[in-house]
């Protein structure tokens, strides 16, 4: 998967998680939705770890060790691609 494909996939999964989160706000007892949320959250965590290892962090807070925390500014900004 290319860098752009990974970023797009992370955006798609994040959107899905937001939608499932909103649904679960009003349907907290729905075990199927909760299971889907957990599966997508795991997918996003794995994909983010792969992306971070290959291209550096996507965020500057809380998701990478301090030695890499500021390397995210070295890559092109999303609108520069």
Helix content: 55-70%
Counting DSSP H or I runs of 4 or more residues, the number of helices is 2
Question: Which outline best applies?
Answer: elongated
The number of distinct β-strands equals 0
Termini separation (Å)?
Answer: 16 Å
Our Rg estimate from Cα atoms comes to 15 Å
Mean pLDDT level: 86
SS content category: mainly alpha
| Sequence of secondary-structure elements | HH
Largest sheet: none
Report the β-strand fraction as a percent range. Answer: under 5%
Question: Which oligomeric state applies?
Answer: single chain
Q: How many domains comprise the coordinates?
A: 1
Low-confidence blocks of residues: none
Concise account of the structure shown:
By secondary structure, the chain is mainly alpha-helical. Helix content is 60%, strand content 0%.
Describe this structure in words.
The protein has 81 residues and is an all-alpha fold. The protein has one domain. 60% of the residues lie in helices and 0% in strands. The longest helix has 25 residues. It is elongated and about 45 Å long. It starts with a helix and ends in a 26-residue tail after the last helix. 2% of the residues are buried.
């Amino acid at each position: 998967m290319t860098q752009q494909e990974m970023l797009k996939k992370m955006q798609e999964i994040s959107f899905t998680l937001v939608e499932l989160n909103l649904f679960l706000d009003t349907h907290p007892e729905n075990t199927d939705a909760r299971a889907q949320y957990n599966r997508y959250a795991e997918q996003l965590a794995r994909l983010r770890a792969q992306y971070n290892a290959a291209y550096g962090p996507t965020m500057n807070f809380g998701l990478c060790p301090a030695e890499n925390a500021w390397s995210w500014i070295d890559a092109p900004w999303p609108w520069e691609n």
